[in-house]
Amino acid sequence: NAGVTQTPKFQVLKTGQSMTLQCAQDMNHNSMYWYRQDPGMGLRLIYYSASEGTTDKGEVPNGYNVSRLNKREFSLRLESAAPSQTSVYFCASSDGTASYYGYTFGSGTRLTVV
Amino acid sequence: GNSVTQMEGPVTLSEEAFLTINCTYTATGYPSLFWYVQYPGEGLQLLLKATKADDKGSNKGFEATYRKETTSFHLEKGSVQVSDSAVYFCALSPLGQNFVFGPGTRLSVLP
Q: What is the mean pLDDT of each run of 10 residues along chain B (111 residues)?
């Protein structure tokens, strides 16, 4: 099925460990996004990539890095995980018609940092 | 700036009750408006949208009308089902900018 694929679905890390969350889309979208979802906080934008080769900070970028590997893939890296990064992470994508068709979201990665 | 305000949840209803989830927005220009739904353990799915004033979006029995005069996009359903239990997000798409999402409203429907 066409869409946005995120891996892994679940992950438990110890404080200070590093990991990379993977995201791939097969809809030929130009723009990709990383959000985190926390209880009572809604969705907060971490980083986004408007097109291949560009990345920009969102609302809460501290503690994260991203790589737009190619048009399909956009990864999120935690270099030294902290308990405050326990959250559900969503990747999304869109093209130039986002104002009409909206964003397409992946199913999320549930990350726990202990 | 651009912002979205949604009614505080959680909202708890009995099956077949009428649902309204309020959404108001602040934006420059004429943004498109969206409702997304998130079922337990899943990602967000587009529920409905409206791209200009007075448009009505509808899907799966849900409706919302783009009211520019009141800057609102309230979500309604005439008769909710247990399967509608989810978190609902209102969002706006300002021209040339990233989406702005509301905080979400959790709906629980009891049999």
A: 89 98 93 95 94 95 96 98 97 89 95 96
Burial class of residue B3 (count of CB atoms within 10 Å of its CB; 0-12, 13-18, 19+): exposed
CB atoms within 10 A of CB B9: 16
Judged by CB atoms closer than 8 Å, whether chains meet at B101 and A42 is answered as yes
Q: Tell me the backbone φ, ψ of residue A61, rounded to 5 degrees.
A: -85, -15
Give me B18's structure tokens. 């009428």
**Tens digit of pLDDT for each residue in A53-109?**
999 999 999 999 999 989 999 999 999 999 999 999 999 999 878 878 899 999 999
- Residue A29 C-alpha, separation from nearest chain B C-alpha, in angstroms: 14
The alpha carbon of residue A24 is apart from the nearest alpha carbon of chain B, in Å, by: 15
